[in-house]
Amino acid sequence: MAETARRRPRADALRNRERLLAEADAVFRAEGTGASLEGVARRAGVATGTLYGHFPTRAALIAALLEARNRELFEYGDGLAEHPDPARALADWIRAVVRHAAAYQGLAAALAARSGELQDSCHRLTAIGERLVDRARAAGALRGDTTGADVFTLMNAAAWAREHDTPAQADRLLDLALAGMIAR
Amino acid sequence: MAETARRRPRADALRNRERLLAEADAVFRAEGTGASLEGVARRAGVATGTLYGHFPTRAALIAALLEARNRELFEYGDGLAEHPDPARALADWIRAVVRHAAAYQGLAAALAARSGELQDSCHRLTAIGERLVDRARAAGALRGDTTGADVFTLMNAAAWAREHDTPAQADRLLDLALAGMIAR
DNA sequence: CCTCGAAACCGAGGATGCCTCATTTTAACG
DNA sequence: CGTTAAAATGAGGCATCCTCGGTTTCGAGG
Question: Which of B118, B145, B153, B166 to mutate: most A Cβ within 10 Å?
Answer without folding.
Answer: B153
